[in-house]
Structures are given as C-alpha cells and as structure tokens.
Design a protein that fits this description.
With about 190 residues, the protein is an alpha/beta fold. It has a single domain, classed as Dihydrofolate Reductase, subunit A (3-Layer(aba) Sandwich). It contains five helices and eleven strands. The radius of gyration is 16 Å and the shape is globular. The structure holds NADP nicotinamide-adenine-dinucleotide phosphate (NAP).
Length: about 190
C-alpha cells in the first residue's frame, strides 16, 4: 500500500504468544535485537535525518520519554498538551500528533524531503494494528518464549503478507533466549 509513495514498515519483537510488552516494558532484554532495531531504523544519510519513527505515547514513555538518537520521532497521543507536558514544543526531532493519519502524512512528507525511503512504525499494540492497512513490510523478531501475563500484543498478520527472508535461529547468552529475524512483505496486487 505505502503512504504518499513512502514505504511503511513495522518492526517489533514478539513472543510465541505474540506478546510485545508487560508493565510498559519489553518482556526481555536481547542486546542483538536492540542492535537490529537500531540498524533497521537508522540509515546513513549524510548530515540529514537518519530515520523516521512513529510510536504511541506509552511506547515513547517506555523508552524514558526520550526521542531516539539520530531519528525523528512522531508520538501519537490524544492529549492536546502532551508536547508541553514533556518539553517537546519546538523540538525538531520529536513531534506530538493526535492521530495516526497525521503521523503518517507528516512522516511521509519529512521522509520525502530527507530522501528517506521508509517510515518505521515501532509500536505499540494499537499503532501496529491501525497502521497495518498502510504497511508494506514487517520486520519481526520472534522470541522463543511464552509470556503468560503480558498486556500488549502484536496483531495477527493479514493473509496478504508472506515470509520474504528468515534468519537462522540465534541464541542470546545473557537471557538464554532463542530468537530469529523474519521479514514479511505484502504481496503485490499485480
Ligand atoms: N516488543 C516490541 O517490539 C515493542 C515495541 C513497542 C512497544 N512495546 C511495548 O508495548 C508497550 C506499550 O505499548 P501499548 O500498546 O501499551 O501502547 P502504545 O500503543 O505505545 O501507546 C498507546 C497510546 O498511544 C496513543 N494513541 C495510539 N493510537 C492513537 C490514535 N490513533 N489516536 C490518538 N492516540 C493514540 C494513546 O495515548 P494517550 O493515552 O496519551 O491518548 C494511547 O493510550 C510497552 O510494554 C512497550 O515496552 C514493545
């Protein structure tokens, strides 16, 4: 589908029961996955913006209410004074918007100006779900663990997504967890 000719991609790490979060934190710490996230969402781009991400208010707060380095963050909240609350007024690396359409429109316009091909949807549950209809590519880290009492989940993939690339199973020594990276692409309409 894409949005204003810009690729929309989602990136998430999900458990075997599709959990992405618990108590507004990630349910695991896998250093290689955090590096994967950074690598995917950041692209060398001279002095220009290196990446554009869209996230819900709780995901922003789960990362310490700080915009991601080198990237521009669009934070969605229904609270009209949220930018003031968080000292984000006038910042050029973080913009508070009040619905997904505004996030996608402004992110796509910025991407166009900055010569970036992709805008990244980085969570959480509602934003992933609402953005699926605009999404071309999904990068999932499948973490081989069941999270019994999670409170945020990744949606089921629509049937028009297919596996494009799949890594081997990897192992994180510190957490003793197995995981693998999978790229899903939306099937072309043609
Ligand atoms: N595993 C992963 O890859 C991954 C990725 C991201 C997040 N997470 C985890 O997921 C959890 C946070 O996600 P979440 O699902 O609870 O929350 P979230 O989607 O990050 O944030 C929800 C909030 O975003 C705002 N929002 C979202 N869509 C909106 C819309 N269309 N219009 C207006 N406001 C909208 C609302 O903020 P207001 O209440 O201010 O109106 C809503 O309460 C944390 O545990 C985090 O660690 C995991």
């Amino acid at each position: 589908m894409s949005y204003a000719h810009t690729e929309v991609a989602q990136i998430a790490a999900i458990s075997s029961n599709r959990c992405i979060g618990k108590d507004n934190e990630l349910p695991w710490h896998i250093s290689a996955d955090l590096q994967h996230f950074k690598k995917m969402t950041t692209k060398a781009n001279g002095d220009a913006i290196q990446g554009i991400v869209i996230m819900g208010r709780k995901t922003f707060e789960s990362m310490g209410s700080k915009p991601l380095p080198k990237r521009v963050s669009f934070i969605i909240s229904s609270q009209l004074d949220y930018a003031e609350q968080k000292g984000l007024v006038g910042k050029n690396n973080a913009h508070v918007v009040h619905n997904l359409d505004d996030a996608l429109t402004q992110a796509a316009s910025l991407a166009h100006g900055a010569h970036l091909d992709t805008i990244w949807v980085i969570g959480g549950e509602r934003v992933f779900s609402d953005a699926l209809m605009y999404t071309d590519r999904i990068e999932l880290t499948h973490v081989d663990i069941e999270i019994p009492a999670g409170d945020a989940f990744y949606p089921e993939l629509p049937s028009d997504f297919e596996t494009s690339v799949e890594s081997e199973q990897m192992h994180d020594e510190k957490s003793d967890l197995d995981f693998r990276f999978v790229t899903y692409m939306k099937k072309s309409d043609k």
